[in-house]
Amino acid sequence: MPPKNQRRKLPSPLPEGLILTDTNKKEWTLGKTIGEGGFGLIYLASPGRDKPVSNDAAHVVKVEYHENGPLFCELKFYQRAAKDNQIKAWVARHKMDYIGIPNYWGSGETKSSSTSYRFMVIDRLGTDLQKLLLSNGGKFPLNTIMQLGIRLLDVLEYIHEQEYVHGDIKAANILLCYTDPNKVYLADYGLSYRYCPNGNHKPYKENPKKGHNGTIEFTSLDAHKGVALSRRGDLQILSFCMLHWLCGKLPWDKNLKVPVAVQASKTKLLEELPNSVVNWAAQEDGCHAVASFMAEVYRLGYDEKPNYGVLRKILLNILESTGTRLGDPLTFSHVKAILKKPAAFNNPIIEHARSHSVSPGADRKLHFVANRDLQSSRLQKSPKVCMQ
C-alpha cells in the first residue's frame, strides 16, 4: 500500500486511436478520456482495430505509468481472485443474480513517446455513488442504503473468500452498471490487500508509522493503528459508509485534518454502541440497523471469519420493513420510508440474502423489531469485544 497522502503523478494522455495489445495478443482501440483515478487515466475502448471507439463503448482502459503501483495491485487482484470463471462459479453456487465486481478483459504494457505504461481493460461502469450523493443532499433513502449494503456484502464475502480485502470502500468507488442502473459494483482494487496468503492470516501488529491509511472519514480502527487490513476492517468501513449515507454526515467530520482525533471519535462511537449511534442519529429511521451492524462487526476478532449471513439479515429485515424487495429498482431521491412489520417475500434473490450462512438461532436473535427501546436493550446486553 502506498504511504498515506502520497499522490503519484497522473500519466500524460495517450493519443485517441492508439492500438493496445494485451498479454493474450488481443488488440484494443483507445478512445477518448472519460475520467481519472488516484494514479491513472480512464479511456473508452473497443476490441479490435477496425473502427473508431463509439461514445457507448462497453469497455474502458485504465492506464498508469509503468512504475506506479496501484494498477499493478489491481491487476494481481483480478488475476488471482476475480477471473471470469471464478465469479461465474460463485454466482451459480450461491444462486445469485449477479455479483458487483467489474469483468476483467485483459492487460498489458505499451510505450508512447519513449514512456512505458501499464494498462488494464475492464467493463465500463456508470455513475458513481458520490455523484448521486451530491445530487441528493448528501443522503440516500433508507431502503436504498439497505439494498446497497446487502449487495456490497455479497462482494466482500466473495473477495474475502479469495484471500483479499478491498480497503477503500467509499461512494466514489461504488458505481452503477452502465447498462442497468439497478445493479451496483464495487470498483478500484488498487489498494486491495492479500490478508491471508495461502490460508495464513497476517498477524495483528500495530505500526504507528503506517497509521491512518485509507480515506480518513471511513477507514477502520485497525488502519488508524497501522494494522494490516483484514475482513473486519472492510466491514467496519462499510458500516461507516452506511451511517454517512443515512445521516449525510459523520460524528468526526469536523476533525478530518486531525487523524488521531478521528480515531478517538470512532473508538468512542464503537465502544458505546448502540446508544452512541442511536442518540447521535435519533432522527433517522434505520439508525438501529446501522448500530446493530456496527456492533456485530465490532465483536469480531482480527482474524475471525465474519458471519456474513447474520450481517445480511440485519439489513434485510430493515429493507423488508420499508416494503422493498432486494431486487427492486434502486431509488436515490430522498423520500422518507414508512417502516412496517417485515413481510414474507417469496423471492429467490431475497431468499439468498435471507438464508445464506444464517443459522436458525442467529436468525431469531437478530430479527429486527420496530420497537426502538427493545432493540436498544438487546444490543446493550451484547458483550464487548476485547481489542487486540
TrEMBL record:
SUPFAM superfamilies: Protein kinase-like (PK-like) (SSF56112)
Domain (Protein kinase): residue spans on this chain: 28-319
E.C. numbers: 2.7.11.1
Keywords: Kinase, Transferase
Any one GO MF annotation of this record: protein serine/threonine kinase activity
Keyword Chaperone appears in the UniProt entry: no
Pfam families membership: Pkinase (PF00069)
InterPro entries linked to this entry: CK1_Ser-Thr_kinase, Kinase-like_dom_sf, Prot_kinase_dom, Ser/Thr_kinase_AS
Protein name: non-specific serine/threonine protein kinase
Organism encoding this protein: Pelobates cultripes (Western spadefoot toad)
